[in-house]
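We emphasize that the prediction below concerns an isolated chain of 439 residues; any contacts that depend on oligomerization or on bound cofactors are therefore not represented. The input was used exactly as deposited, without trimming of termini.
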Amino acid sequence: MAKSPELVQAYELIKAGRRDQAGQILKAYLANHPHDADGWWLMAHSVTKPENVQKCLERVLLIDPNHARAKAKLERMQPAAVPAEPDDAFFAVSSAQPARTVDPFTAQAVSEVDSFTTPPGIRPPSAEPIPGVSGPFTESWGSFDSDPFGSRASQTASQPGLAFVQDRPAGNAASDARPKPPRPKSRMPSGVPLEPTAAPKKQADIEMVIGVAVIAIALVVLCGVGLFFADRQGWIQIWGLPPMKELQATSFSFEYPKEWEVLCKNEQMGNQVCGAANDARFIQVDYYTGEVDYLGDLSDALTIDFFGASDPPDLVVSVIAMDVPENSPAYSDTSMAAMMNEWTGEYNLYTDTYKTKYDKREITVDGQKGYYYFFSMEDKAGALGDLIGVGGGYWALYDVYVPHGDKTFWMTVQTYSYDSSEDIPDDIIQHIIESIQWK
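Result of the prediction step, given as a token string:
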């Protein structure tokens, strides 16, 4: 049975480290579905305070006493195992809210969102996902380094010593201060001029050299900034793409950065599903071939991420591509980019906190007509930083559908920059899409 869109979306946000947003969605969902054990199981991975985690797990066991993972996690919970975080505001709502504030995630709002269906026109002819299909958003980012938002060890810059301070007056200042006898007049004949001192000329030369050096440095910096801006605007190509390599699948191929990792496996109908990622942990092929139960394995996959102590990766890029019949269990005709645009646009979610972009258009892929979808969400208010103390983030989704004959080629790309520390590699992703070829 296919999972509800709210649970799938909450799971995706948990994987991306956006637990606050996942908690908001789950809070609204559980208001209308208070007896859904999967919802409370996901909420247990959205909250961070030990007492809130315990309440969620107890609710899971109250609904499903045979839930082995919830029972095991509840038994091994210790207060010291969970790092303290500022707040679980989405879990415990204050009773003293200003009258003018409207919570967009109340049960009334959710009753309107529950009527959400697959965005129309994602790809003709079908607009609803196939029942039982995991969909393009059931992949997992795998196990990140422990505690993606753990505190970073502070480093104190070493202070310079005082060995360079001299205890005596510099130069001949001490001897110059003593009285001297008058200079004999007989040593210098009358009318003979003294030799001019060279000190003023040397000082002028030094000042000129310093001035030239400052101007040269300023010109170099100015040229560098100008070239960087021109490259970012696409006026010129300075940096170029990294070395690329070709992935050869059974019925298609595409190029990807040479240093990335790739993997291809067959889905249940025997068609290849291929993945490429900038780190082997982010290859999500198993989630499309039916080898991983994303809800069942959530505890094992994410416990280290939530409760560990390592920094998160700066950039996550994951590509999935397949050429399959529309009845393949691995395929979904629901674009996650289009779905996220509908959630944030039509339902006015996160508009005060995040800046979003959306693009939908027809493209040509190796002579075939296709459909392209793009959605990005960038933190503009530091909300993520206020919650967990690491700053904002930049999340982008790409979907490409190319129907041909009795099959449809589908490529979905997810990329996330933690704390916006690195730019989303849009030029690389666009090149991957443009390099798709049929066999």
